[in-house]
Amino acid sequence: MSATDQSRPPQPPQQRQPAGAGPGADIEEKAPSRLVPVWRFTVAVLRMPSGLFGVLVMLGFVVLALACPLFIHPSDLSVTQATGPLLASPRHGYLLGTDPAGRSVLTLVLWGSRTSLAIGVMATALTMVLGATIGLLAGHFQGHVGRLLMHVTDWFIALPSLPLAIALAAVLGQGAASITIAIGVTSWTGTARLVRAQTLAVEARPFIERARALGATDTQLITRQVLPNVMPLILVSSTLTVASAILSEATLTFLGLGDPTSVSWGSLLNNAFMQGAVTAGAWWYLVPPGIAILVIVLGFTLVGRAVEHVLNARVQPR
Amino acid sequence: MSVGVQLDAPAVSGPEEAPERSEFWVYLARKVGAAIVSFVMLLVVGFVIFSLIPSDPVSALTRGRPTSDAQMNHLRAQLGLDKPLWERFLTFVGHTVTGNLGYSYEYHQSVSSLIADRLWPTLLLMGTSTLISIWLGMWLGIRAGWNPGSVLDRSASAVSLALWSVPTFWLGLILLVVFGSGSVGGIPAIFPAGGLQTQGTAGGLAPSHILDVGWHLVLPCLTLVAVIFAQYVTIMRSSIIDERGNPYLLTARAKGLRDEVVRRRHAVPNALLPSVTVIFLQVGGMIGGAITVEVVYSWPGLGYLTFTALRIPDLQLLEGTFIVFSAAVIICNLIADLLYRALDPRVRRQ
């Protein structure tokens, strides 16, 4: 984070050449060293056992989700083409038993990682874009605009997120897109506050004053000076957001707001609940999707915490 | 510190009592004003979500039924959909403020009366779980924060993290299939599989009925507690850690008090103040848990009502529950703000 402190001066104003030629050349030489702190940071995170475990879990799930189509055929997921016994416990030759349609629960849970991860990541991206935009604007324009934006943010923080997400998803209709929007709209507030605080800190530094003196516009200041310095923080907070987005996705899909045809962990639990797996005592249908959610959320949370820990350890000694 | 404040508080507030009192009214007015603004914003958001986003509520209402154009137009006029937007918004605000949340065509009942019917099961569930969670969370948090890094502290953090990572509804499903279905691993169905009471029993305040409701309450309550108590552990732990370094504790120790007495009589009362208000701030998060738990256990509260409204979908009913949930959160936040000032003299003097 600190490496980008001496960001390049704003490009467009031509008059910077005579004034900033000396320091500009100096910075050009240092430019390649930007990657070194990133590398050091990664090593510091991986050195923590929880960080390493989290990264391995994250990578494992991503690889699994991407590799699924290699060994799972669409017919394995089809309700009509399933060949197994109906709702059979794991003793009947299937590692994790079967669902009421005769599909292998193991296959379904593996395939479910694709939808859950995809929606989790997309919703996080939306959250980050919304939160970062509002946070940057609120931090940069410190007058009425900033105050108004922060009031809106505070108000959204106070609002109960699940009822709001349910209302949004219900109105937008079933499906992945509406769930993604619902999660994004309800979870951007934390990012906005974080980004605003960081923007205020960055804008207090002298190089912003310098850029301003050189004639940089608001847009240039935000995109070229502040954003590169806030970006690491945005990326860091995104790991924790993915965790809560996956949880929200599972919850909303369980409540029946997801795409009924796609297989995700939430929809598996929804099917299990609706089709009487509870009264049948079909624990093999209920346990695996939940364990999958638990492990992946734990993985993302541990990475997020390890990253926070490393960041704090670096910030505090100063 | 608490002793110090008590000692010099009269001296300070004596001559300045009048300005302090008027300050309180200013504070109260500001907070109530903020709550009213929040409520107005809630109405705007509710109006945008439920009145602007859906393309045509009438076609959603009449879906699957043969309806003529004339009938549809009549319905539109009846619902006020042919009026300009601002007029619709004002009507909506007027209705909501006077407690008219619309009519549920699914239940053939007004939304307000439906919500009133389902309110107390939700209050019962959330109230009981909150009380147990606070007790458990504070008990654990105080002990964990008193010795940070101890075995108890680390296991409390690990358990909280694991429970945070579990979806609430899944925990409910697992508890239900283990203790409520009677078909897993030979464990008998100790607790009922759902509902508020055994079917066919009369209500009222008979002891047998109260016991019956309590028996039905165990599993939903357990699920909710498991998910929310961790927050109280965290809050209590960090506020005890903040108190731990204070000199007045050194004084207490120097007097020769036992460690447990120092903690219970000196550290905890001070650490308790900030935590009490946080309890009210947690309500928003709890509502989410309560909805899914009510769904899993068919608990006939507002969450289950939301779920049934969602499946139809009955937008009027959804709008009603959304507004009630959000208004509850706004009120709880207001209470938290006021309590914070009332309980902690240090805030008042700033």
Task: Report on the architecture of this protein.
The complex is a heterodimer of chains A (318) and B (350). Chain A is mainly α and 318 residues long. Helices cover 74% and strands 0% of the residues of chain A. Chain A has helices at 16-30, 35-47, 49-71, 74-77, 105-140, 144-158, 161-172, 176-203, 206-213, 218-254, 265-274, 283-315. Chain A is elongated. The model of chain A is unreliable at 1-30 (pLDDT under 50). Helices cover 76% and strands 1% of the residues of chain B. Chain B has a two-stranded antiparallel sheet. Chain B has 350 residues and is mainly alpha-helical. Chain B has 15 helices and two strands. Chain B has a domain at 115-313: MetI-like fold, CATH 1.10.3720.
What is the radius of gyration of chain A computed over CA atoms, rounded to a whole number of angstroms? 24 Å
Shape of chain B: globular
Tally of strands of chain A: 0
CATH topology of the domain at 115-313 in chain B: MetI-like fold
Query: Most extensive interface, residues per chain?
Result: A-B, 41 and 54 residues
Helix content of chain B: over 70%
Proportion of strand residues of chain A: under 5%
- Report the end-to-end length of chain B measured between terminal Cα atoms: 15 Å
Main beta-sheet annotation of chain A? none
Mean pLDDT over all positions of chain B? 81
Query: What's the number of extended β-strand segments of chain B?
Result: 2
The CATH first-level class of the domain at 115-313 in chain B comes to Mainly Alpha
The shape of chain A, in one word, is elongated
